Request: fold
Amino acid sequence: MEHDSHTPWEFNGSFYQPSAFLMMGIPGLEALHPWISIPFCALYLAALLGNCAILFIIRRTPSLHEPMYYFLSMLAVTDLGLALCTLPTTLGLFWFDVRSIGFDACLAQMYFIHILSFIESSVLLAMAFDRFIAISHPLRHPAILTKSTVLKIGLAIVLRGMVSLLPIPFLLKRLTYCGKTELSHSFCFHPDIMNLACADIKVNVFYGMIILLSTVGMDLIFIVLSYILIIRTVVSLTTREECLKALNTCVSHICAVLVFFIPMIALSMIHRFGKNVPPLVNTLVAYTYLIIPPALNPVIYSIKSTHIREALLRALCRKRGSDW
Reply:
């Protein structure tokens, strides 16, 4: 990043490419950025400390070395990555008014933001599959989701995100840019960069839509199907207590799915079809999508998961005992 109000251009025949983009904070509230940074700092701090605490607790508690908590660890690592991807540019803009970000740095940030978003979507699908197996086939659950199987699923998730999004930076680098270089957010987002080009972006639009529908879209469909099957299994249980106990194990995951997918779908729709949406709405949805899930997921799982909560309390008690 560079603190520079001017954006120089690189010229190569008829091909124009900016050496930097200008990031935007919250439209109309630029004078309040130092104050607005306070809740953002709180959210980033909650995301970093909360997810690190989840990882520490799962690692130190042998009883949590189960598929459900392995997938929760993957979710925590992904949330840490998402928070760290946007933290430097967002707080740099709010605190020091650093608006300029290099072209290649912007593409790199965009690539990792989208990879981590796709990974989070896939991890949420894996967690839904875990809940389905645990509720529908509890006796076969340990045999189906072994440690090696969970590891293979994790590697497949990462490779899927990396490979499917690899062409995106190259598709953006081939475009000619002219005139406007202001992004809509304090971070780099594919549709945002793409719309600054003055070349034909049909390939970018088509590839982006296909990848989104074939990855995140399919993940959401399979998550819904998993819960339809879970509900069918739960309804067949004999007592009301068994039904409630089975559903209670899914509450945290359902909350995490809603917190992630609702703002993601809203932001994708705004960038593609919401030409008349006020900039402030666009900005707030974007921040909700990238900052709220990493901050809320540790809270959701700490509140609803008895095992996580008990392990956290034991860790705090040990810490307090050692201080005395």
Residues 103-136 form the longest helix (34 residues). The longest strand covers residues 9-12.
